[in-house]
Amino acid sequence: MQIRLEKINHVKRQSRYCVLSVSETLFGEWCLTKETGPMGTTAGQKSILYMRTREDAVAALTTMKDDKTRSGYAPIPVQLPLL
């Protein structure tokens, strides 16, 4: 599961992104990965939170998504790469 959020504010010259994803590790744990930074650059931050169950990871993802949308981010459909 992956969600991409973007915030563009032309007045403040802001263009930022946030990618939240839930995946399973090789050891059966679930992790929530959060990548944030300015669009168009390689600068950014990545953090990983490990959870015991998928439900916990999805609940944390939903909470983070709600926080970001309250602060002005909008969800963007994730495009799959072409073969």
UniProtKB/TrEMBL annotation:
Residues 1-83 form the WGR domain. The lineage of its organism: Bacteria, Pseudomonadati, Pseudomonadota, Alphaproteobacteria, Rhodobacterales. This is WGR domain protein. It comes from Falsiruegeria litorea R37. InterPro entries: WGR_dom_sf (IPR036930), WGR_domain (IPR008893), YehF/YfeS-like_WGR (IPR049809).
